[in-house]
Amino acid sequence: MLAFILRRLAQAVLVLLSVAFIAFMLFQYVGDPVTNILGQDATPQQRQQLRADLGLDRPFPLQFARFVVNAAQGEFGLSLRQGRKVSSLIAERLPATLELAAVAAVLALAIGIPAGVYAAIRRGSVGSQAMMVLSLLGVSLPNFLIGILLILEFAVVLKWLPSFGRGEVVALGPWTTGLLTVDGLKHLILPAITLSVFQLTLILRLVRSEMLEVLRADYIKFARARGLPTRAIYFGHALKNTLVPVITITGLQLGTLIAFAIITETVFQWPGMGLLFIQAVQFADIPVMAAYLCLIALIFVIINLIVDLLYFVVDPRLRIEKAAGAH
Amino acid sequence: MRLKTLALAAALTTAFGASHAVTLRVADVGDVQSMDPHSLNETLQIAFDASMYEPLIGRDKKMGLVPLLATKWTQTSPTVWRFDLRKGVQFHDGTPFTADDVVFSFKRAADPAGDMRGYTSSMKDVRKLDAHTVEVETLTPNPILPDVLTNVPVMSKVWCEANKAEKPVDRRKGVENTASFKANGTGPFRLKERNPSTRTVLVRNFNYWDKVESNVDEVVFTPIGNDATRVAALLSGEIDLMQPVPLQDIERVRSSGSFTVLQGPELRTIFLGMDQKRDELLFSSVKGKNPFKDKRVRQAFYQAIDIEAIKSRVMRGASTPTGLMAAPGVRGFPAELNKRLPYDVDAAKKLLADAGYGSGFEVSLNCPNDRYVNDAAICQAVAANLARIGVKINLQTETKVSYFPKILRRDTSFYLLGWTPSTVDSHDVLSALIATPDDKGQGTFNLGAYSNPKIDELAAKIQSETDDTKRNALIREAFKLHQDDVGHIPLHQQALAWGFSNKVSLAQLPDNRMFFKWITLKTR
């Protein structure tokens, strides 16, 4: 088990290095922030000087090496746009994104799994058909459109919910949360729904098809034949066996939720990391972009690791094979 | 916790003391980058920080100069300006404002770490004569120093030293600076809360030295980057005032009845420039010669552009076509010269044929797509216009962060640019856009290297001419020469569009600076 985790961590470092490498190659093409920083009244000499001071005129391998050495020490430098430490910028934004992604994930799971089970059990019923049609909409409508439509309906027309921002937040040490105030919760509703719609429908459809598959299996027939209660068959045996692929997909999707919160965050002006990244791209704020990409890669790696560990919990066969292979 | 308590307090005040807390909620497409008034030379930041930090001299609603921290300014010799400072002014922390603060601030603004050096580069020395008088000696006679100083806010020397903020934040060294997120000025508003990219809250400074027109007690500023969300936030009543209103939404905001969209011409002039220096264009089908060196070709391009169609279709009416490189409102603007060459496709074709390009040619046009209002669409329209006279345009649009480094390297044959003279003076236009580029700071944005030695001479004279009438005559002459040469192709001034609830009354300035001190909010 420990060896497995260590091996995974070593792979993680490799993944991070390659992400950083690719990111830096891209940075050669995003342009440079010098005109943004210096404004129109600077002389060409001042621009050249700044470029040199920021190390932007150095060859790509040197810039990359410097970045890796600093990043290994947790040092990403100052944001070129805001003149503040990248690490503190990200630390400020991280709670907003994680909270949004977590609430969206809970929504997606809490609605998606039961709905998927229902759609499988009541296959062909009106409710289940309607659900499938709706889920098709959810998968195919682009995220930003859903966000804008929700804003239009619930903020502009009905005026029930706020259209932007995070509202009132409570600080718990370095962490800020909007979950503890009514205002914060109100602000969370629309973005969380927007972000969860795709995942929700994905989970719904996945659970449904897996469940249909499992329900055809012999052991379910035997269980029925033995006269086990329906509830025990569906939730004790069938659902448990559909969960392995669901966990894989949900785990990976949680990473996507965090990474692709960018669009939802842009639409709702949600002060998270995605918004920070978009603003950084528009300014060619290279330190922020690099730190963000590395962090997202790290999150993906960690989530993957957790997913792999969860397999052991859910699927006893894996544990046996491992034990067998140990001697 | 603090946020919650504050919000609670605010809620209680609204509930019990109705007439007291007047809160103005403002949204802009971008955030103010820093609270440090010397750190970044950008319109939004200069205007926002001006509510907290004041310069010696300000502008009134008609862009005229008015005394702020200086009560009087006189030129004691051609290279020396003397400023009498206002007495009895206090910074927000209670320390009195004196000549030391001015000397300190001008030196701070000139620090290489900051980006306001352009405004102080003409200064040779700043001297304190007594506690309330300073003298600025300039390298050469500088008649527009007071105009320039409207962009240099004054900070407290004591406060900056106590907070280790003697210099603007230096991105190169990677050390943060207190002044980036705290503020202590003399202005009508104080900084209460700073949450970068989320919300910045200002409150009224009731110790302000002057009466303030505004009845606003508190300003809550929020950046909302997405156009649709910003419009929705206004329409749903979550904000009172925002800018810019996207062109396609102006009608919608207006038609709702409870909102106003105020549109005024901005000082920024959008124009096209052509490479007139290289002997062969970098990006063109014409080899061995440069067609843009021929005035007839430049004029043909000019007359082929249907500026009224660009105004009505691309800009939805929100532009003012111009025949000059400077906008009305810029000091020295020669109104009588503001006439465009007529739009005339046949004349353009003939000019092109006379120049020897009867069958047309190909050339690339470089264009930003996220810098000016509908910039890429303007270029598409220009390309379509030029196709009618047989010129095939290879249009290259890209984001500003890659566009500006490219055109500043002069890797372009034909480009679109916009310019607001930061001093609101014609000399800035002449020296940055029109004068022959040299290594002394002339023609830094004359990217096609248009050159007319007579204009260079005039620009030098204008810089040190102190008599307004003579100076205006020189400016007029220079613009006339440039017009006759068709040195650039001016297009239009884009319109500002501020959207606000009918409760708000305000003053809009053509330099797009929003001053909270001129905004009042109707309360029931």
What does it look like?
- Chain A has 327 residues and is mainly alpha-helical.
- Chain A contains 14 helices and two strands; from the N terminus they run αααααααββααααααα.
- Chain A has helices at 2-27, 34-38, 44-53, 60-72, 86-121, 126-140, 143-157, 182-215, 218-225, 230-259, 261-268, 273-283, 286-314, 316-325, and strands spanning 170-172, 175-177.
- Chain A has a two-stranded antiparallel sheet.
- The longest helix of chain A is centred in the N-terminal third of the chain and has 36 residues, at 86-121.
- Residues 323-327 of chain A have low confidence and may be disordered.
- Chain B has 524 residues and is an alpha+beta fold.
- Chain B is 29% helix and 23% strand.
- Chain B contains 16 helices and 19 strands.
- Chain B has helices at residues 2-16, 43-49, 99-109, 117-120, 145-149, 157-162, 227-235, 250-255, 295-304, 307-314, 345-354, 375-387, 400-408, 426-434, 453-464, 468-485, and strands spanning 23-28, 57-59, 65-67, 70-77, 80-85, 123-130, 133-138, 189-195, 199-204, 218-223, 241-243, 259-274, 319-321, 362-368, 392-398, 414-419, 489-501, 504-505, 520-521.
- In chain B, strands 1, 8, 9, 10, 11, 12, 13, 16 and 17 form a nine-stranded mixed β-sheet that branches. In chain B, strands 4-5-7-6 form a four-stranded antiparallel β-sheet, with helices on one face.
- The longest helix of chain B is centred in the C-terminal third of the chain and has 18 residues, at 468-485.
- Chain B starts with a helix and ends with a strand.
- Residues 1-19 of chain B have low confidence and may be disordered.
- At the A-B interface, α2, α3, α7, α11 and α12 of A face α1, α4, α7 and α13 of B.
Explain briefly what this protein structure is.
By secondary structure, chain A is mainly alpha-helical.
Portion in strands of chain A: under 5%
Number of strands of chain B: 19
The residue fraction in helices of chain B comes out at 25-40%
Shape assignment of chain A: globular
Mean of pLDDT of chain A = 84
> Which structural class is indicated by helix and strand composition of chain A?
mainly alpha
**Quaternary structure state of the chains depicted:** heterodimer
Gyration radius of chain B (Cα, Å) is: 25 Å
For the largest beta sheet of chain A, what order do the strands appear in spatially? 1-2
Secondary structure category of chain B? alpha+beta
